[in-house]
Amino acid sequence: MSSQKVRPRRRRARRRYLLSPSKAAGYALSVALIFVFAAADAFGQALALGLLVGLVYARRNLLVVGGAYLAASVCFDLAVWTPLYAGIPVLVLWIFYFAHRRARRNVGVWASAGAGLICALPYAVIRAVLHGDYPSAALSFLLAGAVSLACSSFCYAVFVRGTITRLAPDEKIAAGIAAAALGYAACSCEAGGFSLAFALLPAAGLVISFAVGLPAGQVFAVMAGVGSALCTGQPHIAAFLVLAVSVGGWLLPLTRWSSAAGALAVYGVFAAWAGDYGFGWENAIAAGAGLAVFLALPQSALIGLTGGRGGRETAVTAVINRSRRETAARLSSVGKVFLDMADSLAGAVGGAELYTPERLASEVAKNYCGRCKNREGCFPALGGDTTSVLLPMANAVLARGRVTILDMPPFVTGRCSAMHNLVAVMNSAGEAFRRRIKAEGEAAETGRLMSEQFAGVALVLDGLAEECSEGTEFGGRTGRAIGDELLRHNIVAGEILVGGEGESTRVSLSVREEDADKLVLPRIVSAAVGTALETVSVTRSGEGCVVHLAPKPLYEVAYGVAEKKREGEKVSGDSHSVLCPSRRRRLFALSDGMGSGEAAARASADAVAMVENFYRAGIDPAVVLTLVNKLLCLTAAGTFSSIDISVVDTVTGELDIIKMGAASTFVGRVGSLESVACEAPPAGILESARPLTLRRQLYDGDTVIMMSDGVFDALGERGVAAAAEDAATSNPQVLADKLLERAAAEGASDDCTVLVMRLYAT
Q1: Can you tell me the distance from the alpha carbon of 37 to that of 69, in angstroms, rounded to the nearest whole number?
Q2: DSSP sequence for 421-471
Q3: Chain centroid offset of residue 530 CA
Q4: CB neighbours (10 Å) of residue 358?
Q5: How far, in Å, CA of 664 to CA of 69, rounded?
Q6: Per residue in 536-572, pLDDT tens?
Q7: Which DSSP symbol is given to 416?
Q8: How far apart (Å, rounded) are the C-alpha atoms in residues 706 and 696?
Q9: Would you say the pTM of this structure is higher than 0.85?
Q10: 24 three-class SS
Q11: pLDDT (tens digit, 9 = 90+) per residue, 433-449?
């Protein structure tokens, strides 16, 4: 029996398409409409050209739609000059878009319409020169421009944004013009008594009624009917089209079958009434065929015309919020790890307390006295251990760094025969102990510094986790309300992302490029979310823009700076900084280095740089100066700096004051001037020093005055108050100059810096 080898079945490779079914259907519809528009009797060339310009603006492939335009032109208007006036527009559009792409510039809808006018010139010139039909040539030229503008706007909404449900007012007008052009062209397509208008327009009206709503279907029927009436001169065609779409749309909530039957019944009445006007059985069959196509369309295809956004928005919202919650949980877990590390380092006991005089005396007694040849002369009297008599020597060596024979107790001087060697051993062991104590102290201080740094990182991570845990809404009720209100102001918003609430509200939405800078946009979004927002950034995305909005500050800060260096010095020892560590906060820092000149300038500049970096990293303000102080103590090599920081929250008006060794800060309100003094030493002197931290609430018109000790020492609190009262100004720069002038008049000789801030309502 012969065995046959069974060959395994080869798996058929999955077929890949160059175009998705939806894109293929879109191209097929585009090509079909080009042929329909080109078939119009009088102005088919202008209508087809306008549609071509709109399709290319909507990112349809020029080779496909341009080839269809050439074929349709030759098919319906075959003449010697046809290749010229049909080929030039395709070439012009290719050059036009190629030049914009090379220049990396987007094409606007008005630029697209201008290109359509240029493309219409050859046909208009040939029609005027060769045929002498100047009015028709001019009308064809203008019609090409108008249809180009309308089709560019409407086709972009349909093919690029992918929806016909959210059209701006200008896009709705463009859609109406396109519908009129379609009605005009469809009535021109007639063969054997069959008119394309009766097959296409009622079915298209029902499709729009199903996808968008009955009012939209009725508007389409009216505009398409107007185009049909212009072509045929029979307005009753428009009337029955509107009636058929209205009846069919009214029956749509039942079934599509009932809707099609209602529209067909209307045309049955039309056939009975308008037989004398040329409406025969052929057109009734055409209407029935079009309605049959409407019934054959898949439900998914009709729903897809709406953009299919409802379920997608819910799914995207769920995915985004789940991802944010997972990220928040991870950040919180990492923050807990850093917090545990901070607690462990803070609770770790240093080893310096292990190196005591008792231990030193014990080690010398064991390692030296225990090996001495004459130990029998000492041990019996002390119970075998000389630690007690060596303890005074251990105390002396650890206290003074060195011990002598004079520090020996009488017991040792009276019995020990190797006193000089004992002194040398005690000094050597004492030096080793002192080095160990210093190393342990530095290690303990490093641990405390790392503990505070880890605690600061934990606070930053907790803040990020809290921010990420806030829910985000993609679309949804608020997003739809924003989109609907924007549409009323001719602003088309695509994706709308809403997150947070109150002071943490964030909104991001995609709009057309021409809508991104409209002043009404943030006002509309603010009214919808119930929080005053402002545009914080605009990001280009393709041919559109993404607008990011955040809470609008209630206040802003105006400031002025006045400074002078010490006479005889090249640079001032004072340093100041003004920066925005976040969008809502304004930080003002002033540092006065020890002494004057370049060394003091470097010390103060280093301190200010540290403060800036910590704030940019998001470290809590209460931790910043503590970390800066410890770092300066470890690295400053005997230099120190006073540090004065004021942070203003422009959303709430809160003022945070953080000071170390700085001169008093003055908070001025209507009729009062509060002095905030600091007793903490400058940064870089005591590692255990804690900065002064406090918070004040500011309102419109309040003033904050910061100064270096060169100014404060010359004026004092009363002098500052008197100078501020005499200045009688709300200009912070003028007040800063007046304070510096008053300090100089009072004999200030040190480096002087005055920093004045004034809060004002936006």
Answers
A1: 10
A2: HHHHHHHHHHHHHHHHHHHHHHHHHHHHHHHHHHHHHHHHHHHHHHHHTS-
A3: 20
A4: 13
A5: 80
A6: 888 887 667 889 998 888 899 999 999 888 876 777 7
A7: -
A8: 15
A9: no
A10: helix
A11: 888 877 777 677 677 76
